[in-house]
Amino acid sequence: MDFQLNQQVCDGVESLINDYAKISLDDLVIMAYTEDSAESVALLSESLKLKKVQHHFIMINPLSDEEFLYELTCLLPNAAALKGDIVFLTFEKNTMSHNNVFRKILMNCNEKQCRVIRVISAGYEFFAQSLAVKPEVLSKRNTAILEKLMKAKDLIITTKSGTNLTVVLDNNRYRWISNRGIIKDSSFMMLPAGEVATFPANINGTLVAEFAFNVNIITDVDARLVNSPVTVKIVNGRAVDFQCNNKDVVEIVNHCFGNKNGKVVGELGFGTNIGIKRAIPLNSHINERVPGIHLGFGDHNQLPETANYKCSSHLDLICEGGTIWVDSELVPIDLQEIKPSVNAHPENLYAEDLKSPVDQQDMELDDCCGLTKN
């Protein structure tokens, strides 16, 4: 294996099995993985063997695999003969592929007996950092933010790096997404977890992203921004100028901003995963979950009728930490020192921050990441 086993990784494997996927001894686990995530599956398989949990695995091609549905169907048992549930786990490093396949599988299964957990950014840091916090903790932190912001209209957001943004929310029009590592009904669980996000009705000011970027392009460029922050000036919900001293990062930003609607702020996001302690070089969702603010430029996370535009790119620029001043309240939200809520998580929120046929009614938009190579 490329990464060393240590206690953090072993704890992460156990947390995935017990806390997130909630796998029992009577369950059947089917793992689908791309070649770049084989080590993650090997780790999980060893633990499942020790627990004597029945499991199979199948390697898939990212984004396009004509045989996958057939091969996956062949692994399905007679549901009546299975005491437990069928748990599908997918592992990919750069992509999130074949949602349409899993939608078809779920349609043909008793949904109470099937659940789908999708992992992007699979690897050492996924186990060591993003799974260090139980989903119940993430849920309470997400709830604490949502309780304030789902009622809010005006926000002022600042960070130590120099971000200063004024935001207008329209909670009657734009939906909130809450990714907290808890599966809901027949929706998928997407990991790593720990984020709430919406679409800003309007946003102005300056973003200084000093933590990392995450973009739906397969790239080997180091995603960390600590030595090369990206400063973006935003006017009426669009980027009008940016600066950065790293030519590779500049090339990525120019590529995304050059796309039709690529400068639109399509996402206002807040990371909540306190297990994320450091930025990693990988272009990944792990960085996006750090407690802090991020803005997503380009494609949005809304239904087509509410945010009526499309964009081929989605570029998240991420800040660590941040303060949110809500309407006229005198005490702001400190994103690194959130007091967990004791209340129930709000109902009827979306749990995914990726596009799916249920949201888009368009199979061509089924894969969320890694659409091109830079």
Supply database-style keywords.
single chain; 374 residues; alpha+beta; Rossmann fold; 2 domains; seven-stranded antiparallel sheet; six-stranded antiparallel sheet; 9 helices; 25% strand; globular; disordered C terminus
Question: Can you describe what's shown?
Answer:
Strand 3, helix 4 and strand 4 form a beta-alpha-beta unit. This protein is of the alpha+beta class and 374 residues long. The strands form three sheets. Strands 13-12-10-6-5-17-18 form a seven-stranded antiparallel β-sheet, with helices on one face. A six-stranded antiparallel β-sheet has the order 7-9-14-15-16-11. A five-stranded parallel β-sheet has the order 2-1-3-4-8, with helices on one face. Helices cover 23% and strands 25% of the residues. It has two domains: 124 residues, Rossmann fold, CATH 3.40.50; 231 residues, no CATH class. Helix 1 crosses helix 5.
Ordered list of secondary-structure elements with their pairings:
Layout: H1 7-20, E1 28-33, H2 38-51, E2 54-59, H3 68-74, E3 86-92, H4 99-107, E4 114-120, H5 124-130, H6 135-149, E5 154-158, E6 164-168, E7 177-179, E8 189-191, E9 195-198, E10 202-209, E11 212-215, E12 230-235, E13 238-243, H7 247-257, E14 265-271, H8 285-288, E15 292-298, E16 314-318, E17 323-326, E18 333-334, H9 357-360
Parallel strand pairs: 1-2, 1-3, 3-4, 4-8
Antiparallel strand pairs: 5-6, 5-17, 6-10, 7-9, 9-14, 10-12, 11-16, 12-13, 14-15, 15-16, 17-18
Brief sketch in words of this structure:
This protein is of the alpha+beta class.
Q: What structural category arises from helix and sheet content?
A: alpha+beta
Q: Averaging pLDDT over every residue, what do you get?
A: 90
Radius of gyration: 20 Å
Alpha plus pi helix count: 9
Number of domains: 2
Task: Report the span from N to C terminus.
Answer: 27 Å
Strand order of the largest sheet: 13-12-10-6-5-17-18
Largest sheet: 7 strands, antiparallel
**Regarding quaternary structure, how should these chains be classified?**
single chain
How many E-type strands?
18
Q: Roughly what fraction of the amino acids lie in strands?
A: 25-35%
The 3D shape can be described as: globular
Helical content band: 10-25%
Given as residue ranges, the uncertain stretches (5+ residues, pLDDT < 50) are 355-374
Q: N-to-C SSE series? A: HEHEHEHEHHEEEEEEEEEHEHEEEEH
